[in-house]
C-alpha cells in the first residue's frame, strides 16, 4: 500500500510535524508540510536543516544526501498542495474542533484511496474519525518527541480503522526505522497511560515530603535507571502540558485515583513556573541559580557492611547475589522476607510501609 514513491503530507510544522517530515524524508519520501502560519513553516524548515546538519556531522549521511534530504521536503500554506499524498499525517494543535475543520479541507483534496493519520496524544482516534467521509482510512500514528530520535510509534486503530491499513502503516513505520506497536484507542494509548503513575508517584512523594525534589529525581535517575526523574522531566516537557495530560487522562478514566493529577504541579502552573521554557519550574534555570544536590549519605566500600545472611528457601535471591558476586551466608533462623547485614535485620519491601514491616517483625 505504501512505498518510497508514496508522497507524504504532514500538517503542522511545529515540534512534531517538522520531526515527522524529517523522518519521512530520511526514508526517501517526498514530503509536503502544511501550516497555517508562515513563521511556523520557516521554523520547521530551519529545524529540518539543523536535523540534516546533525546527521552529516555524525557521519550518518554525506553532504549530497543532506542536501537531498532537505530538498525532498516542501513547505506550504495551501491545503491543495497535499493532493496526491498517499498518506497525510496531521500534527497540528491539540484541539478536536480545529483538527476536524482541517480534516474536512483535507478530504476535499486527498485521493479517495489516501490514508489520513493523526499524531494526537490525548484525543480519541475514534471520535476524531466521526463525521469523516472515510473512517476506515483514518488511524493514529503517535510519534514521540523528538520524532527523528525517538524510536517508538504507536499505531492506534479507532473503532472503524481498517486493520489492513493499520498493518500497512505499521510496516511503513518499521521501514522508517521505527519500532511500531499496535495500540488500542484508550485514553493515553500505551505510553501516556503507563507514564502517568511514573509522574504521579514522583509528585505524591514530593507532596508527602518523602524527600526533596533533587533527591527524588536522583533516586529515579541514578538508582532506578530512568533517563530522568519525573520532576526534572516535567520541567523539560512543561508543567502546563504535563498537568493538562494528567488531567485529561484522569477525567477519561472517570477519576481513578492512580491517575490523579498533582495539586502541587497545578500550583506551579498557576504561578507561571512552567519549567525550563519559563526559566523556572521545580528547579530554577536562571544563570546564577545553584543546582540543588540530592540528599544522601555515600557509603564508602571500606565501611560497607560485612556479611550478608539470607534465610532458607531464597533460591532466586541467592542466584542473583551469586551473579552479582556478592558474598553471603545462609542462616536457618532468618524468616522469609528478611535478611541480615551484620547484626541488622533488613525487611524486603512487600507493599507495606517500613513501620508496618518493623511492627510485624517484632
Ligand atoms: N510535543 C510533543 O511532545 C508531542 C508528542 C507527541 C504528540 N504530540 C501531538 O502532536 C500534535 C502537534 O504537537 P506539537 O507539539 O508539534 O505542536 P506545535 O504547537 O509545536 O505545532 C503545531 C503547529 O500546527 C500549526 N497549526 C495549527 N492549526 C493549524 C491548521 N488548522 N492548519 C495547519 N497548521 C496548523 C501551528 O501553526 C503550529 O505550527 C498535537 O496533536 C500533539 O498532541 C505532541
TrEMBL record:
UniProt keyword Nucleotidyltransferase, yes or no: no
One Gene Ontology MF term? NAD+ binding
Q: Where is the 3-hydroxyacyl-CoA dehydrogenase C-terminal domain?
A: 188-285
| Keywords tagged on the record | Oxidoreductase
The record places domain 3-hydroxyacyl-CoA dehydrogenase NAD binding at 8-185
Q: Which GO terms describe its biological process?
A: fatty acid beta-oxidation
Enzyme Commission number(s) of this protein: 1.1.1.157, 1.1.1.35
Q: Which InterPro entries match?
A: 3-OHacyl-CoA_DH_NAD-bd (IPR006176), 3HC_DH_C (IPR006108), 6-PGluconate_DH-like_C_sf (IPR008927), NAD(P)-bd_dom_sf (IPR036291)
Gene3D superfamilies, alphabetically?
Answer: 1.10.1040.50, NAD(P)-binding Rossmann-like Domain (3.40.50.720)
The protein here is known as 3-hydroxybutyryl-CoA dehydrogenase 3-hydroxyacyl-CoA dehydrogenase
